[in-house]
Amino acid sequence: MGEGLDMLLLALYGGSLVFLFLYSLVQFQLTLLYLFKKQHSKCTAALSTFPTVTVQLPLYNEKYVVERLLTAVGALKYPKEKLQILVLDDSTDETVNLVATNVKALEEAGLTIEHVRRQTRQGYKAGALQDALSKSTGEFICIFDADFVPNSDFLQKALPYFAHKDIGVVQTRWGHLNKDYSWLTRLQAFGLDAHFTVEQGARNSGGHFINFNGTAGIWRKETILSAGGWHHDTLTEDLDLSYRAQLKGWQFVYVENLAVPAELPVTMPALKSQQYRWTKGAAETARKHLKNVLASSKSWSTKWLATFHLLNSSVFLAVLLAALLSVPVMVIREDYPGLQAWFAASSVFKASLLILGLFYFTAERKLYAQSKNIFTFPLRFLLFLTMSLGLSLHNSVAVLEGLSGRKTPFVRTPKFNLDTTTTSSWRQRHYQLSRLSWVTWAEGVLCLYFAGAVVMAFWSGDFGFLAYHVLLCLGFGLVFGYSLRHHR
Questions:
Q1: Rounded to whole angstroms, what are the CA distances from 70 to 58, 77, 112, 132, 280?
Q2: Which of 90, 145, 147, 193 is an active site residue?
Q3: Nearest-angstrom CA–CA distance, 120 and 162
């Protein structure tokens, strides 16, 4: 390689490491906030009055879980005259008939419930939620996705947190119905638990931007209207509306000790569809709101945290770029003895792993302090990192599409409602699978690429990147292999 190209590669590699280190510093700041910031409860002891509530249930082809959802919502302990249930059903399969049957039964039980059908799926979930606003009679709007199963006392426990008129949203923690179904669900729970303890808790206690997570939360209807309603120009309508509402001055409350269990994706294609929607939507929301956040009157600390909140998915770009460039960097670094101090300094960024380890360990200790599994944390953390590395190409493509403004349709995540106490297979549940994309095959190529880097390390005797390249090879290999296996 020419010296100019070498310097460009080194600059890009160093820039990726710097971005990852800054991201880890944000995670460290959130961990300290979570551990040491005093939590101020804004909850009264119990509901003194019962405000009107509309429960909205957005659905699209959820034949395996819709009855479970409607049974749970129908069992909510709340005065019937104060409760309205809207089933926002955009389905095109037998879900429609299942909903109709269950809605009729709940009506006969005395509930105010309506089966809402639209002419088209315009705007997807956001479009359905916006369409339902004019039909919603409640002062508060509670939203549950199809894979969530709220406890009967959810409204009575969550509504008291609207202690002041300026509180626009109460968001609760996601629990897990099928955490122990497979290694894939365990690793997803591992990542989500950190978001729903350390990240959401720290941002909220510090008075910084947080987000409504799309489900298992309650909005004050006035908040939605004053912030401009639901928009469908991003794939994360929840994050978009959250920022618009908070920029308008509305306060959000996060309640960690109130959890709503939900089903985790059990196949790699399902996980990828969810990750694609989240990462691309976050990038689209950053493109839409980051400038407004930086121009706002919020404190610099809040702006700093919001920047990395909105650019959170862009971490995958830095991960992928650093991974791809690590191989040529390994080859050329001996050609530049004058830069050996720079190469040595770059190892400081390994501290990022320690910081991330603390971030995730804090969440594990908070939720599972009495579990013996806490002693297996290092292994689970390593597996989580490996899977995250393997998903970096898939998620980077989604981020680039989001930042560039390329529009794609909302792709639902299949839910299966499997019996977690048996070996019940998701293969017995029929969903039409999309064709394998070029990204999946590229993941296989990257597995071979980093396998070659491992061989090169033994051939050259340079083992500085060996552990890193082994993890990358395993990560891309696992994601590629499970994508093929689960697609069959």
A1: 12, 14, 13, 18, 30
A2: 90
A3: 35
Query: 208 with 301: CB under 8 angstroms?
Result: yes
C-alpha to C-alpha distance for 223 and 50, rounded to whole angstroms? 19
Do residues 475 and 268 make contact, with C-beta atoms less than 8 angstroms apart?
no
Give the up-direction half-sphere exposure of residue 318: CA atoms within 13 A in the CB hemisphere: 18
Residues 143, 129 contacting (CB under 8 angstroms): yes
DSSP codes of every residue in 178-200? STTS-HHHHHHHHHHHHIIIIIH
Say if residues 477 and 440 touch (Cβ distance below 8 Å): no
Q: Decide if 172 contacts 155 (C-beta within 8 A).
A: no
The SS3 assignment for 25 reads: helix
Q: Which of 19, 20, 10 lies closest to 338 in space, CA to CA?
A: 10
Strand boundaries in 277-351, DSSP class E: none
Parallel, antiparallel, or unpaired: how do β-strands 251-262 and 140-143 relate?
A: unpaired
Dihedral (CA of 238, 189, 69, 46) sign: negative
**Measured CA distances, 110 to 39, 50, 74, 305, 352 (Å):** 40, 18, 10, 47, 56
Contact between 279 and 296 (Cβ < 8 Å): no
Chain-centre distance for alpha carbon 210: 13
Write the pLDDT tens digit of every residue in 42-81.
565 678 789 999 999 999 999 999 999 999 999 999 999 9
pLDDT at residue 262, as a whole number: 96
**Which residues of the chain are modeled with pLDDT < 70?**
1, 38-45, 341-349, 418-434, 488
As given in the structure block, the two tokens for residue 413 are 């995540």
Task: Note if 238 is an active site residue.
Answer: yes
- Given 6, 89, 145, 238, the catalytic residue: 238
- Whether 90 is catalytic is yes
Q: Is 87 helix (H, G, I), strand (E, B) or coil?
A: strand
Q: Cα separation of 460 and 482, whole Å?
A: 32
Pick the closest to residue 145 from 85, 213, 58 (CA basis): 58
CA dist., res. 178 & res. 61, Å (int): 21
Closest-CA residue to 52 (of 27, 82, 73, 16): 82
What are the helix (H) ranges across 368-418?
Answer: 377-390, 392-404
Sign of CA dihedral 421, 424, 426, 428: negative
Q: State how far the Cα of 179 lies from the Cα of 262, in Å rounded to an integer.
A: 9
